[in-house]
Amino acid sequence: MAKVSMPKYNTVAIDPVTLDVIENALRNARYEMDAVLFRTAMSPGIREQHDEFPLICHPDGRMVVGQFGSYVDSFLSNYEGTIEQGDVFLTSDPYKVAGAISHANDWLVLVPIFRDADTLIGWSSMFGHMTDVGGKVPGSLPTDATSIFEEGIVIPPFKLYRKGELNSEALNLILNQVRLPIWNRSDLMAIVAACRTAEKRIIEMCQRFTLDIYLSALDLLLDRTYRAMVQLIQVHVPTEPQVFEDYIDDDGRGFGPYKISCRMWRDGDKAIFDWSETDPQSEGPINFYLNEHMFKMFVGIYLIMVYDPQILFNDGFYKVFDVRIPEGCLLKPRYPAALSCRTHGLGRIFDVLAGSLGKSAPQYWPGAGFSSSPHLMYSGYDKNGEWYQLYQIGFGGVPGRPHADGMDGHSMWPVFTNIPNEYLESYFPLLIEKYETVADSGGAGKNRGGNGIDIQYKFLEPGDVSIHDDRWLTYPWGIVGGKPARRGTKILTRVATGEKIILPSKCDNVHVQIGDTLNYITWGGGGWGDPFEREPERVIKDVKGGLVTLGAAEAEYGVIMDSETFELDAEATTAKRAALVEARGPIKSFDFGPPLAEILANCKAETGLEPPKPPQFAYRVGGFSLKAELAGTSPDE
Amino acid sequence: MAYRLGIDVGGTFTDLLLADEDTGQVFPVKTPSTPADPSVGVMLGIDKICQVAGISASKIDYLMHGTTVATNAVLEGKGAKVGLLVTDGYRQVLHIARSWTPGPLAGWLIMVKPDPLALLENTFEVDERLDARGNVVKPLNEAKLRESITKMVKNGVEAITVSLMNSYANGAHEERIRDILKEMYPDIPVSISSAILPEFREYERTQTAVMNSYVRPVVGRYMDGIASKLKERDMSTHVNILRSDGGLMTLQTAKEMPVYALVSGPAGGVAGALWVAKQSGYENILTLDMGGTSTDVALCLNGTPSLGRETMIGAQRYNTVRISSLDVRTVGAGGGSIAFVPELTKALRVGPQSAGADPGPACYGRGGTAPTVTDANVALGHLRPSLIGGEMKLDVEAATAAIKTVGDAMGLNTVAAAQGIIDIVNENMFGALRLVSVQQGYDPRDFALVAFGGAGPLHANALSKLMGSWPCIIPPSPGLLCALGDLSTNFRDEFARTFIRTVDKTTAEDVASALTELGQRARRWLDDEGIDEADQKVEYQVDVRYHRQGFELTVDIDAAQILEQGLGVLGQRFDDAHNRLYGFKLDTVHEIVNVRAIAIGTTSPIALPKLEVGGPDAGAAKTGENEVYFDGKQMKTGIYNRAQLKAGNQIAGPAIITEMDSTTVVLPDCYAEVDAIGSILIRPNN
Question: What is the ipTM of this complex?
């Protein structure tokens, strides 16, 4: 474990204006990190979609601004060397940072910030998703991998800069393993530049306010959030255990669905999240190495956003949470399990979290959302013999919320954005023929779930496509009477024959010809509240805008209108709604759609794909027999 | 003899400032605004100022004008009903936007997303397609287009935007559709995205072009009103509208591309405040422009206003367009803001509803009864019973009666209610000032506060106290500052071309000739504006980035330098700048994104007359003493006439300094000092 000595400082009283200035200056430094990155990075994933996460920490490693919480602690306990002024660390090994990054495509840069050689005053860090890190398929996320060795280069923590000196030989060695070295170099240097920007700002602040004031202010900010969180937990986490389960549909190798289960309760001042009923790790790449600190941050932020968004969040509240994840399960796989397709697990955690917290007070919580980051990869050589390679993140429906509808075709990841289609067309051999949300795909509700998106890609060069998606099988559930949303699907149309092929939700090496088209259709968000209570004017507005069809207005909402003028037939609507309410009976707190057995039985007919086989856990990883150790239960048992 | 006229139309008053080009002498005039048709107030002002200066209107060569017509339309959601034509498959381009949800994690939970400026029901698809190089993939289906247009117009749209995929590379389809629209419906204004913002990224381009349509009818009516009235008076004045970024453009351009002038009015105020602050030796300032309906704030560092690549109205992401502008933030808090007490919470709220200029606050005696911030100032004695050089008497009884309704609803006496209203409106402005300072990482204690607008000087001292921003500067004629800013602005316009070519696919000759061609256009514009050759200047820039980067850096370089040193010099200068800014450079090909010529016509400097120098004793300007309320306590307060103050005079607070168009309050624990040009600088006693 690497040793660092904490700076000596005196705790001093801070006037409220100074505290305010420091807090906002920190937040501003974090936005400046983003700005520097977007200006200098090259890959569309980082440049246009913002697949990156910045962080600024207290010298003791606690996050003061950022998103996912701090991993400095996990890093230090796994690193053996020295930490000195001018050092810049790089790693992409999830197993060496306790899952702070959860697949090898995320490159993490960590900069210790020193005022002078002896005084550590903080940390800045950022990780971003590299379009390619080598390995067996373009994009480095093989859907059929069974170990991390198939997923490209895995960089253990090392000094990219030692005392300010770039280790260019090591960097060249790394870049020699990847398909687009100039993108990785540019993106990596951009991340370093972003961290250096934060470093500069922190040093300036210590000069401007003195070290005593700066660090005392950080302590105050962390403590303030801690106190707020203690109260939130007392009120909103019940002592009675709440169990919530959801699924990852398949593992890319034909097995599934995999269960993710969370048991949550409060014991005194502590909220406990126990994952031991989650399925064991998969042989495929869908394992999601969940860092406990990161999960604490997820819970804290969700509570803050639902109950009191004015509270500023930081690492101050970690000690009020206890997170229990058994080793060898899907959320803490044993080395060297494959990890590359962890995005579905990462996303689904948020549905499970909303469900767990929502069990005792569903009216305050949304249904299932767009809980993944579906990817499209498209690569090959163009007619000039130049290599092209796209990695694109797709979006879908945000669930209906207690105060409003879910957004159609939006991101559930903070500040991510779509890639402008004009950007895609100017840098890749693509024509995007359609970019619109799918009417009726959001779950019906008093507040409607957002619609999924249909992107129609026309390929202008021969190449290979990979797809990473989920929720093609289980439904994005609705809450307090809201209906589940529609599932996603992928349709490839061959230009030569006109044949339409339903592609699996996770696949690699799909060869496409010039003129073939792909409809990449994502899933919607679950509805919130009783759809028969939705104001008819809102239903009419959706129909006029093409977001809900006339048929669905009648069948799902019981609203009847003139098909030309869209004028409401109030009488017919009242009658229709009364009949529909009668037929439905009482509303459900959670609506998951049909039971799993029925979903599996109808799978082929409804989705065009064979149902996945029940997962088999009796295989050996790292010399252990998991079946023997974990009494895992798959859904069919 | 030639004259230049600066005009600022506020919600309540219209301010005019006339400068003699030869002597620099200035004449101010103020008239009430006429919101129903603001050009009426403008013309009244012009008549009045010509009378004051003793000249005929035809002597005015240039009219420089900052307007808030567009800003207000957006803030109040009162723009046009916009129809939008897009490429097949892209009807939801504004609805999906960039799929962005706010941070932090789960920020989507509390996000509020308004309807797009062009509603989905008024958005229609066009059967056509261009590729990224501008080649036609699918020709324009005109028959189908005409059907869609008919349907759209039936919906009652008042302005139409055409924004097609890849039109930044080839505007032909958009231009053809514009011609068809002109033929079918000649009265509906049409904006095409390739003319407004020829940049790639379909959402941003569409949004910007739709915003243009959204404000176009209201701005057009206003500009036409001015033009026709000038014509009636046989004035051949060049009318120039202040752009959001502080440049100027012609009236015709402003009519067609009002999106470039979304925050035109506030930009004038910032320019004026900076001009005045520099005279007093301050280059780091916060500006506070408090008018009748709203307050604008901005920050200037080292004598330069913060400039952004975007224009954002009312801190609303979906009212953002990709047009550069001064970073001015607006809150709906002004002298006319109405105070009310909601039945449910019994809390005191102020604004954003405003009594406007008509009927105005209760104290104006024009039939208004709603209690406003101005009435609260009257009730406390901060505002004396006469405004505007005695032309307008304030009705103290009506003001007090109006404030009493608030006090009664809350169980407070009238003085406490009035003080409460002032405290709350100050808090709202404090919030806006924090946005541009603290929240950008600046410490407000390092800045002076410059306050103007009709109501600014009444509240300025209190805000300086809240912010710790000293001194608090009250410029001479604070109501006229925006007009002063308009007047001191240089002519400036940009002539740019999207180039987008890597350096290995072009030559020094190509780049040089593009620059030269743009430079010629810049010269022609300056000539058309009637700028003397001696006052003309053209600067050249090339935007460069590494191929596949998303943003560029600007290199200042002209055609001669490129021809002499070759294209390599662009890469070198870019690498140096990149290394300096971000700490690294890359060994990869450079891409030229835009080439640009900037035309600048310098205007002759104006000089405010120096004040006569006097000693610290301001006794000569004192007109009396009154009992005035501060923090609920009645205090003996000196009343001063600003016109009588001399440079070097000092006044101890509490004090009220009155002048033709505004009133300055000096708080009990502060003192004021008059500087050489007549600015009042307020500082705390300790």
Answer: 0.92
